[in-house]
């Protein structure tokens, strides 16, 4: 069952970076990739580095601590010192706002 919740104003989601926002008790990262919006965990699954200092390029985010690279749309690990994926969450744009579904 989905549970869409408001996450941010679209105007506050900068392109080409991980935008860290609080949604309830969680923090997540929002990415504006062209006309689409994506959401992932705000922290790297390797050793927990916050992705706000990560490098976003060509639909991927690179953790700034040990350089794990993840595909933003799927969370798939592309390279780096960890084995797990980056958790991802459904996200959508509705008017001027961004909504996410954090349902496990
Ligand atoms: S904490 Fe991100 S790669 Fe190690």
What does this structure look like?
By secondary structure, this protein is an all-beta fold. It has a single domain, classed as Rieske Iron-sulfur Protein (3-layer Sandwich). About 0% of the residues lie in helices and about 45% in strands. It has no helices and eleven strands. It has strands at about 5-10, 20-25, 25-35, 35-40, 55, 60, 70, 75-80, 90, 90-95, 95-100. The strands form three sheets. A four-stranded antiparallel beta sheet has the order 2-3-4-9, with no helix packed on it. It is globular, with a radius of gyration of 13 Å. The model has no long low-confidence stretch (mean pLDDT about 95). The structure holds FE2/S2 (inorganic) cluster (FES). FE2/S2 (inorganic) cluster binds near residues 44, 46, 65, 68 and 82. The site of FE2/S2 (inorganic) cluster has 11 residues, from loops.
Sequence of strands across the biggest β-sheet: 2-3-4-9
The total number of structural domains is: 1
In N-to-C order, the SSE pattern is EEEEEEEEEEE
Helix-and-strand structural type: mainly beta
For CATH, the homologous superfamily is named as Rieske [2Fe-2S] iron-sulphur domain
CATH class division? Mainly Beta
The backbone outline, from C-alpha atoms, is: globular
User: Low-confidence parts lasting 5 or more residues at pLDDT below 50?
Assistant: none
